[in-house]
Amino acid sequence: MPYTYLIIERPAEGVALVRLNRPKQYNALNLQVLQELAAAFRELDQDDSVRAIVITGNDKAFAAGADIKEMMEKTAVEMKNAPFISGWDAVALAQKPVIAAVSGYALGGGAELAWACDMIIASETAVFGQPEINLGIIPGAGGTQRLARTIGKYLTMEMVLNDRRLTAQEAAQFGLVNHVFPVETYLDEAIKLAAKIASRAPLAVRFGKEAVLYAFNSTLDAGLQHERLLFYTLFCTEDQKEGMHAFVEKRKPRWKGA
Ligand code: CAA
């Protein structure tokens, strides 16, 4: 499907790269970008040749948030009825692992797009923030919840109530970013990480992601039960037999995704 504001590439085996491409507006997320994002993620999540997805912007901006000009005269009902949140939801609900490769501004809904991903690779120039308070609103695409669950109440409060921004290094220190690389290499590094994950046992990757995300929505007891169920279920797969036999036979496993 042709997109106006997205470029989809296949930079490595099993890896899809989704580039936000609205550079003059710092990749501000208008309704069309969000709808394209939702369609692209639904499509890539169904595509068996895709095992991991990288989402990126450009070196100056991952995304500067939801489109303020488009939103400014909207009513609450219009905001609720528009498929506004579908873009973030499609990223957050993907079953395949999703890596955000972030450089420059990741603000408001742009930061929330990164928080919806499973891992974040940042360039040294990345700046993360929830500046919605300056507009008389609060984050509406998961920022208050995903941040509080990741970095805790106090720093989240400062970010949401007082537009505290985080450099890439700070974000890494607080556990929001997996790795920080120079701007010249962050995207290649994100693709390399995605390719490595794409080469692993597909069902185990999928179940591993599901188990970790379960921790965000459940009590410890329910999470442990769910993890155990997924763990036992993997013993129904050919890949579990292959992985363990390959270890014992001192050879590389050949994954089938079955
Ligand atoms: N929406 C719409 N347009 C935006 C935008 C946004 N979020 N961010 C940047 N732009 C546009 C600017 O309006 C400008 O367009 P024009 O040339 O047509 O005037 C262009 O991008 C360049 O921006 P600036 O001139 O402001 O560039 P700068 O280098 O001085 O500053 C910036 C860059 C720091 C990113 C600044 O543009 C900025 O602060 N942007 C807004 C960030 C923000 O508040 N994001 C939160 C949005 S609300 C939200 O996301 C809600 C939610 O939770 C879902």
Description:
The chain has 258 residues and is α/β, with parallel strands linked by helices. The protein has two domains: 6-198, Alpha-Beta Complex (2-enoyl-CoA Hydratase, Chain A, domain 1), CATH 3.90.226; 202-249, Lyase 2-enoyl-coa Hydratase, Chain  A, domain 2, CATH 1.10.12.10. 45% of the residues lie in helices and 16% in strands. The chain has helices at residues 31-46, 68-71, 76-81, 86-93, 109-115, 143-151, 153-162, 168-173, 186-198, 202-214, 220-233, 238-248; strands spanning 6-12, 15-20, 52-56, 61-63, 98-102, 105-107, 119-123, 127-129, 166-167, 179-181. It has a six-stranded mixed sheet with strand order 1-2-3-5-7-10, sandwiched between helices. Strands 4-6-8-9 form a four-stranded mixed sheet. Helix 1 (31-46) packs parallel to helix 4 and helix 6 (143-151) runs antiparallel to helix 7. The radius of gyration is 19 Å and the shape is globular. Bound molecules: acetoacetyl-coenzyme A (CAA). Residues 25-26, 28, 64-69, 105, 107-109, 112, 131-132, 135, 139-141, 143 line the site of acetoacetyl-coenzyme A (CAA). The site of acetoacetyl-coenzyme A has 21 residues, from helix 2, strand 6 and helix 5.
List keywords for this structure.
258 residues; alpha/beta; 2-enoyl-CoA Hydratase, Chain A, domain 1; binds acetoacetyl-coenzyme A
Enumerate the strands of the largest sheet in spatial order, edge to edge or round the barrel.
Answer: 1-2-3-5-7-10
Largest sheet: 6 strands, mixed
Looking at the structure, the CATH topology of the largest domain is: 2-enoyl-CoA Hydratase, Chain A, domain 1
List the ligand species. acetoacetyl-coenzyme A
Q: Return the average pLDDT rounded to an integer.
A: 97
How many domains make up the 3D coordinates?
2
For this structure, what is the CATH homologous superfamily of the largest domain? 2-enoyl-CoA Hydratase, Chain A, domain 1
Low-confidence blocks of residues: none
Anisotropy-based shape:
globular
Strand content: 15-25%
For the termini, the CA-CA separation is 29 Å
Number of extended strands? 10
Top-tier CATH class of the largest domain? Alpha Beta
Helix content: 40-55%
Q: How would you spell out the order of helices and strands?
A: EEHEEHHHEEHEEHHEHEHHHH
Overall CATH architecture of the largest domain: Alpha-Beta Complex
Helical stretch tally? 12
The chain-level structural class is alpha/beta
The Cα radius of gyration reads 19 Å
